[in-house]
Amino acid sequence: MRDLHNNLGIVEAIPPAVYDADSTPAAIDLLGFDSAEIVIHVGVGGITFTGTNKLEFVLTHSDDGSAYVAVTDADLIGVTGVSGGIVQAFKTAHAASTVHRLGYIGNKRFLKLLADFGGTHGTGTALSALVVKGHARSRPVS
Fold first, then answer.
1. Residue 27 and residue 112 in contact, taking contact as beta carbons nearer than 8 Å
2. In the chain, how many domains are there?
3. Cα-based angle 88, 91, 92 (whole degrees, multiple of 5)
4. Is residue 101 part of a domain?
5. CB-based contacts of 76: which residues, under 8 Å, 6+ apart?
6. Residue 81 resides in a domain
7. What is the pLDDT of residues 64-111, one digit of tens each?
8. Phi, psi (degrees; rounded to nearest 5) at 141
9. Is there a domain that residue 142 lies in?
10. Considering the domain boundaries, does residue 50 fall inside one?
11. Half-sphere exposure of 24 (CA within 13 A, CB side)
12. Residue 119 belongs to a domain with what CATH number?
């Protein structure tokens, strides 16, 4: 059996909670790792999502941790049609909990993931997100 435990770093991008407004994105530093996987977990929608009352996840990246720009299709694996950094969008009823993942293959050092709520959300939606950092240059990872 191979050792995965000592080769990964896992960072909370969006803390698990019930949200009805935009999250405050944390800067995720990829220094010391050569790959990253973003894992988004969304519970049952607190409202029926529509084109107006929606939830979108926006991924941005940066070389210096201060000037962030939206990712594009070329920066990702597992998702296509990225526009304005939107990597996952909920615009219809979401009746079951789901997990979504995408690989970051861009070459920037920092990532930020925003849960962006559009419209009116009278009832919140449970969600969370992790960044799994892989291919550590120095092992074991603490």
1. yes
2. 1
3. 120
4. yes
5. 59, 82, 87, 102, 103, 104, 105, 106
6. yes
7. 999 999 999 999 999 999 999 999 999 999 999 999 999 999 999 999
8. -85, 130
9. no
10. yes
11. 0
12. 2.60.120
- Return the closest-CA partner of residue 118 out of 42, 60, 56: 56
| Domain span including residue 118 | 5-136
Q: How far apart are CA 128 and CA 62, in angstroms?
A: 22
E strands, the chain, where? Answer: 9-19, 28-29, 33-42, 54-62, 69-70, 76-77, 86-90, 98-104, 110-118, 125-136
pLDDT in tens, 14-46: 999 999 999 999 999 999 999 999 999 999 999
- Please report, for the chain, how many H helices and E strands are present, in that order: 0, 10
